[in-house]
Amino acid sequence: MKKLSGISARHIAMAACAATMLASGGALAADAPKLGYSAPFLTDPFQAIMANQTLAAAKAAGMETLPATNANGDAAKQASDVRNLISAGANVLIINPTDSQAIAPVLALAEEKKVPAVLIDIAPAKGKAAMIVRADNKGIGAKACEAVGAAIGGKGKVLSLMGDQATTNGRDRTTGFNECMKAKFPAVEIIEKPTNWKADRATSAAQTVVTTTPDLAAIYMQSDSVMLAGVLNVLKSSGKLTKVGEPNHIFLATVDGTPYALEQIRDGLLDVAVAQPLDLYARYGTAYAKAALEGKTFSAGPTDHGSEIVTVGDNLMDYLPATVVTKDNASDPNLWGNQAAK
Fold first, then answer.
1. What would the pLDDT profile of 97-129 be if each residue is shown by its tens digit?
2. Which cellular components does GO assign to this protein (predicted)?
3. Which domain, by its residues, includes 194?
């Protein structure tokens, strides 16, 4: 059977057949393209909603879907999950890596099995994917820095609750924030605390710093999905939870833009969130997965959906835009957090 860019002609025919059936309102063909979704964990709203939206988008595109797998933060389990998805008949994968280094052999396995893999949200440190769909996380960190630095007048102490530094997102959000602070607000003192995307670690770190740093000016949280509720509880129990604009308010900046975060912005407890384009990860991750099955290829440059494809190492990344959310736009229906809340 003739191969096109590592994809069989049978796969292309299957995709066309499924699309025809979907368009005509019929049921999916028995041999419809089958998508496997591998999540790093499903213990927070961001990951759970992204898995659900991605599987829904894949079904709408005419694909069968296997149940999303949950690695529970374990890179070895994610490797096993992907092997199981392929064994269960997945002929295309969407993966959100739990570890940017450890995903490399997983990508090698998928390539060996001729199963295209699209990565969303987090990029690999090495290894080849059909496409990577994510936001510019250094830019996200810089946007948070600019909001924090301006709000506190370019001076004071800021607690930075870091994501997992074994992931590109954790490293990039840290680097973008720190580089921006050094360049634009050099008088700001950053207190860094690792959390590994764990709510209990974030809460414990916040408790320690809030109670021992009376002049704390701001807190930067690299995931409101994981960290925000615990931080608000710490501030409340310490008698330091005040609304935006009130005296002695500790400025709060987060990343993700979950429904809970948008609610806290509207209630005046959270100052700013840099909202990831979760809905676009699902939409375009699925589109690139379908394109890979059809043997389509892409190149660096502007896209038709307002983003930029860039070359990073051996891979192409579609860098999707992130949105700075304040009280002025927290009710915008286009934000994924407001869509998910319905």
1. 999 999 999 999 999 999 999 999 999 999 999
2. cell envelope
3. 137-275
